[in-house]
Amino acid sequence: MTPSKGAARAEALLDAAEQVLATQGNANSAMRDFAAAAGVRVGHLQHYYPTRADLIRAVMSRALSRSLDRLAVVTDTDQSLSREESEHFIGVLLGEQDDQATVRLYVEVWAIAAADQEVAVVVRDFYAQYIAHVERAVACAQPDLDAADLGAAAQTIVSLLEGSAILRSGITGRKSKASDRKLVDTLQYLIHGS
């Protein structure tokens, strides 16, 4: 099914917003910069996304959807999660860090959220959904884990992944096979409990 003209325009606006955040950064993330990157007037952009927070919420929602789509093969099941399957799951999560533009997008959104309460709400909602998704994967590997421990494991996994993004993305030049192996082993432990 072909998307409507309006839906296609909204996607193009989100593409432009991602590019501005990933290349120009937070300092240039005013609505006029997003509109210029999309080749539209500010009023046209605001027809689809009235505020910067609305635009960033849509960018984050789309980024989350892309991430969750990639993980669905592993996490959208009620079956037990083997170590091999969780290794694939971890590989998909870490693979997102190989794209510097994606990492830069997240870094910039975190910076915006630190100063903008509306965007902070968007970021909190994003991570609540992301953590819930990781909880489902951990629950498949450890079905008897109580809710508190399940939540703690998922939050720790997400914390390790998000923190490792800076080192693994090339921003710091610290990515190594040895540290990746330790990271994967640690994540496997958190997923499987042993």
Describe this structure in words.
With 194 residues, this protein is an all-alpha fold. It is 77% helix and 0% strand. The radius of gyration is 18 Å and the shape is globular. The N and C termini lie far apart (46 Å). The mean pLDDT is 87.
Rough outline: globular
Helix content: over 70%
Elements, N to C (H/E): HHHHHHHHH
Largest sheet: none
Distance between the termini: 46 Å
Approximately what portion of the residues adopt beta-strand conformation?
Answer: under 5%
Low-confidence stretches: none
In short:
The protein is mainly α and 194 residues long. The chain has nine helices and no strands.
Give me some keywords for this one.
single chain, 194 residues, mainly alpha, 9 helices, 0% strand, globular
Element layout with pairings:
Blueprint (H helix, E strand, L loop, with lengths): L4 H19 L7 H8 L3 H7 L3 H24 L7 H13 L4 H16 L1 H25 L5 H22 L8 H16 L2
